[in-house]
Design goal:
CATH class of the largest domain: Alpha Beta
Oligomer: single chain
CATH architecture of the largest domain: 3-Layer(aba) Sandwich
CATH superfamily of the largest domain: NAD(P)-binding Rossmann-like Domain
Order of helices and strands: EHEHEHEEEHHEHEEHEEEHEEHEHHH
Shape: globular
Bound molecules: nicotinamide-adenine-dinucleotide
Strand content: 15-25%
Number of strands: 15
Number of helices: 12
Radius of gyration: 20 Å
CATH topology of the largest domain: Rossmann fold
Number of domains: 2
Length: about 350
């Protein structure tokens, strides 16, 4: 079958966590998938599972972006064609230890803004048929997230803007960038704000991992009767969405014609970070405790202020449900179980190789 007879899809940042899972799903549905990522290869997947073509390249480079934005024609004399769907997931990002310490602010803003500027421009020039942009819950103003039991993350609460991190400001800028390309150049965009997506085959160590992976790793590494360290007082709340639910939500959103967002994609099941840690402990069956580390003790150990972010954050799914007639529903515990099992295997394997 010619490539041009299949749905042609480009995943930018497909060497990462969400992009790898998305590539696998789209390949399984019979699409032709190109991944572009600055990494030489995906950390966990073999490329033939997640794409038909993997290009290692830096999307901050405009000439690279120009060279990858058209799908290759295959029949004799056939010209390159526009992608049916482009997923722009590439970003300089990580967990709290990366985006909330302040130490990476310039890189986070500069790198991600360059990527998005290049991508929006080239997507518009090359006439891609639809482009998805992954924004973040981090765009929401800090003052609506001071109460851990009652945060407000309704889409309409984004303005007046006051994100608590430069990562959030860059995401807000890039949301506006893609929407401006829609207004002025009719680029067909879909903008979603992800709220803590988690699952296997994602970063689980090294400082860029998110809370669910960090908790699973710490519990898996803990010896009997040891304590698992949790940053902050552990009462800060969040909601977490399992990767399979995230992909369902993204694909429903991208493949409808009436609504371009921005819209939240997340879970409404809210837990404190200590509850999340306890969940990982319960799943492991281990007899370990929780030790909260904050303030001066934290600074003395790590040399920077405890980067815990806002007090409370939870996805508000009313808009998504109203527009799409669907909401994610898998309980957090089910996703945590799958994630713990995968990370426990990684911990065991790395201990064997140590
Ligand atoms: P990830 O870090 O696993 O994936 C991002 C990928 O972008 C990485 O593979 C990285 O190598 C690539 N990348 C970075 N700079 C690049 C460059 N200059 N050129 C080419 N590739 C580059 O992150 P993820 O969890 O898969 O998240 C995907 C997107 O969703 C990101 O834009 C992120 O900001 C957004 N998001 C994710 C979450 C979450 O909980 N995972 C929450 C909110 C928003």
């Amino acid at each position: 079958m010619y490539i041009s007879d299949m749905k042609q899809i480009l995943i930018l940042g497909g060497g990462g966590f969400i992009g790898g899972h998305l590539g696998k799903r789209l390949k399984e549905e019979g699409s032709w998938v190109r991944i572009v990522d600055v990494k030489a290869q995906h950390d966990f997947w073999d490329h033939d599972k997640i794409c038909d073509e993997y290009i290692s390249g830096d999307l901050r480079d405009p000439s690279l972006v120009a060279s990858i934005m058209s799908a290759p024609g295959q029949a004799d004399g056939e010209k390159d064609s526009s992608f049916d769907e482009v997923y722009q997931l590439a970003a300089d990002m990580g967990g709290a230890g990366y985006i909330f310490t302040g130490e990476n602010d310039a890189n986070v803003m500069h790198n991600s803004a360059l990527i998005n500027l290049n991508v929006a421009h080239e997507a518009s020039l090359k006439g891609v048929k639809r482009i998805f942009y992954s924004s973040s819950a981090c765009i929401y103003p800090e003052h609506n997230q001071l109460d851990p039991d009652n945060p407000n993350c309704e889409e309409s609460s984004a303005y007046p803007a006051d994100p608590d991190s430069e990562y959030g400001w860059e995401k807000l800028f890039s949301e506006r960038l893609f929407l401006a390309f829609k207004r002025n150049y009719n680029l067909d965009v879909r903008v979603a704000r992800f709220h803590n997506i988690f699952g296997p085959m994602g970063t689980w160590t090294g400082g860029k991992e998110k809370a669910p992976a960090a908790m699973c790793r710490k519990v898996a590494e803990a010896g009997i009767s040891e304590n698992v360290e949790v940053w902050g007082d552990g009462k800060q709340t969040r909601s977490f969405l399992y990767i399979d639910d995230c992909l369902d939500a993204v694909l429903r959103f991208v493949r409808q014609d009436d609504f371009m967002g921005p819209v939240n994609i997340g879970s409404e099941e809210m837990v404190s970070i200590n509850q999340l840690a306890q969940m990982a402990i319960d799943i492991s069956g281990k007899s370990v405790g929780i030790q909260n580390l904050e303030g001066a003790a934290f600074e003395a150990k790590y040399g920077f202020k405890c980067p815990i972010g806002v007090r409370g954050r939870r996805s508000d799914n009313k808009l998504y449900a109203a527009k799409m007639g669907w909401a994610p529903s898998e309980p957090l515990r089910v996703g945590m179980q799958k994630t713990y099992e995968w990370i426990a295997q990684k911990v065991e394997a790395s201990a064997l190789h140590a």
